Amino acid sequence: MDFRRWVKRLFTVDDSILDATFSLGEREDVMKGPGGNSGGDEDKSEGKPDKPMKVRGDDRDNEQKPVSPQKPIPLSEWAKKEGKGESSRGGSEPDAGDDPIPASLDSLEEMLNKTFTLPQNKDIIVRHLIIGLPEPRRALLVFVDGLVDKVVINNFILEPLMLLASVRPDTDPGTGDMERVLRTLVPGNQVERVTKFRNAVKQLLMGNSVLFIEGLGEGLAVETKGWDTRSVSDPKSEQVIRGPHEAFTENFRTNTGLIRARLRSPRLVTEIIQVGQTTKNDVAVMYLKGVANPKLVEEVKRRVNGLSLDALIDSGLLEQYLEDPPSTLFPKILSTERPDRVVAFLVEGHVALLVSGSPYALVVPLSFWSLLHTPEDAYLRWPFGSFIRVIRFASLLIAVLLPGLYIGVVNYHPEMIPTDLMMAIAASRETVPFPVIGEVLLMELAIELIREAGIRIPSVIGPTIGIVGALILGQAAVQAGIISPLLVIVVAVTALASFTTPNYNLSFAVRVMRFFFIALAAGFGFYGVTLGLAAVLGNLVSAKSFGVPLMSPVAPYRHSNPDIVLRGQAYEQELRPEYLRTGDSRMQEPVNRRWDAWSRAIRPQPTKEGPRMEDTGAKRRKDDSGARGQGKDGGNGESGGEGGGKDS
């Protein structure tokens, strides 16, 4: 090939790919000739004349028929049409409908082949067997390989049916075959009779085995779940200083069991809702009956049931689907991997959500102050818990504002710092060729790169890379004269302060807001920082979590335990959060240390009339009615459960 032809090929569009037989388009007749063969080259080779390509029907309609306006239809009617056409989407699964299980095993096997694409699908195992009843019957045992425990299937299903059915006497001659199999031949701990084919498919995909017997028209779903899961281990993102060293796993029932083991109350309710048309994930809604506000529970279930999506892979997706508008940088739903923390929220009257396959639980509604709390605050004595919280709140302000304040002082307000310090800053920046905003952005981006690299590289060398990278970069930048030494200190203190944030989602909000305040300080100095703080606070007080203001119980103010910034004594944490409007307002009696004469002297004595739930009494109802009256007039009386449905 000569050079000119090669250059010509470079600037020539090769559309021969359009003649390929494979296409992701919706219609195949565009790629095929009139005879159904792909392309027109084969017809020419056979000596047949070329024929014009067919014009698609939709193109012909677009050419001949003008577009006419359509009459609007009500939203409810449109939603019904969309709901009817939802099952016919290209990515939806074959729908078994409510067809009953056929009595003939041959017909049943055809339905299984159509539903699970057998025999191409190698995950579905269909085991043919003969049950040794007085009249031997054919049977099918169906299960999903990889989701079941084969030892349980061999020893407790196949062996009794194939070997013991003829040995075990029939104690009740009038009992039907399915009833006899259920009562005497299948020793499973959880056995359920299914009559609909849809329910049988659901049981199979959950990891159970389903037994079908010839001529009976129903099946037995036997609990045989046994896939490999990660064992319970220490929390990864919430380090434990003092408290239980257990974290949620990817096993759904293990997670509910970890909560149930700590909250041994018959009032603990676990409702399971399936979400996802393709993945069919289980979502557990857990709450304490009689404590959690019933309207809050109904609102949570309404939002979960209102989700229409194909896949729900993790609880992080569920968090994004359920949160209240308007959008904000701050999380509105708490995510945690510690069962003890979930139990503490359930006792207060919150609602917990667990997603199958996710090691994180969600807690609603959320108060902003809970994002800065840790379980260790309660496990330590109150002076130490309060001291740690003060450091944590101060670190939050430092992580957000310190770089912006540094820019404002150097660029706009040098008179606000001592003269000697100002001269030292000016001397350190004498050889720096960049403006202050350029220095700060350069160092902040370097810190973010080091932090992200420390997360993504292998955990063995991750911390080492972070420390060494920060030291080398900082020292080299100072020696090269492109960064002032004081700025290295400012950025390092800011990074350390951001690491004290206990909530992972809140730390992202802090990192983003830091750049926001840097930009405001570079443009307007302290005035920009002040306006930015006002905007952030306005966003916080206007945000809600399931109808509860995010800044409760501070804005709007509600009476609560001494547990917002400073942590009070453990025996002073008597009340549940008032903004939840729980059924029982007290978590403990006013005098809970009855052996302590000093406590009995300074605390009011409990009344002996009526149960403790009546302590919610007239005083709180009067306060609530006053708050509701304010909410109607001024918009300040927000409530958790009562406002959830309206605000959403």
Description:
The protein has 648 residues and is α+β, with helices and mostly antiparallel strands. 44% of the residues lie in helices and 9% in strands. The chain has helices at 3-10, 41-45, 57-64, 75-84, 105-116, 150-164, 177-185, 197-205, 252-262, 294-305, 315-322, 339-348, 376-379, 382-411, 419-428, 436-456, 462-480, 485-499, 504-524, 526-542, 597-602, 617-634, 641-647, and strands at residues 124-131, 137-144, 191-194, 209-213, 219-222, 268-275, 281-288, 334-336, 351-355, 361-364, 544-545, 548-549. The strands form 3 sheets. Strands 1-2-4-5-3 form a 5-stranded antiparallel sheet, with helices on both faces. Strands 6-7-9-10-8 form a 5-stranded antiparallel sheet, sandwiched between helices. A hairpin with a 5-residue loop joins strand 9 and strand 10. Helix 10 runs parallel beside helix 23 and helix 14 (382-411) packs parallel to helix 19 (504-524). The longest helix has 30 residues, at 382-411. It is globular and about 105 Å long.
